Amino acid sequence: MDPILALAGFGVGVVVGLTGMGGGALMTPMLVLFFNVPPLAAVSSDLAASAVMKPFGGFVHARRGTVNWALVRWLCLGSVPAAFLGVLVMRALGDADSVQTIVQYALAGALLLAAVGLVLKSYQGRKKPQGDAVVQVRPLPTALLGAVGGLVVGMTSVGSGSLIIVILLMLYPMLRANDLVGTDLVQAIPLVAAAALGHALFGDLKLDLAAAVLIGSVPGVLLGSRLSSRAPAGVVRVALVAVLLASAAKLLGAPGWVVITVPAAVVLGATAQALGKRRRGRPVARELEELPAENRISSGASPSGATSWV
Fold first, then answer.
1. Residue 165 in this model has a pLDDT that exceeds 90
2. Residue ranges per domain, the chain?
3. How far, in Å, CA of 27 to CA of 43, rounded?
């Protein structure tokens, strides 16, 4: 077993558990570019590893109640048969490389749009708090767009998390970031299993390669899922934007330093912004604490039992 490959699997597992995506968009290119794995073997092995890895992360989110089961059902109704069909389409196409290139560029554009959508959603949420809004499920559009995602996954192994995230953002902008990740992880389990089965039937699956990835990715996805299910929605949203940008950059063929630098800049910028807000809030609290006792006027106990100061 290659320990470096297992370590890479651990890193991807953390990303998948934290954001619900990045498995195919990160692991498949990593296998091809850094470990010299043939593309078809990389696709099938990544799908097989994801079929075992994602249930661990999905279980954590299910226990924390961050899964919309109605959305999972309708997405799987369209995506599972389409994923198996995608494998057959790849086998039937004569020039599979060019088709995969077109799909990857289209997916990269969708990922960039999803990142912009998440940022806009964040600013809208600050202006108008929405709380835990009830999500009205739209069965037919959900199943149809799930089928589109399943077809892409079966052809490229990319999109079980990232493309479905885009679909969910388009149809259900009111969905909380934590529920977005949990729902995406759970629906991906039967989706990648169907695609992996299709590749296994044609003899593309490399069990030793998939096992090496799994050794690292299973503990990674457990760790990432625990962080995601407990983390504030804003933290998960920043992680989603970072992974979306990294995945899009990789699919567009950007150099490795770009893939690393762009999401790192997003995380650092969000951290600096949060720290700045925290510091701006501290002087006010200190001024209140330093007021003379005679200037502190208690308005009595509030309904919550707290004392107000003016």
1. no
2. 3-291
3. 9
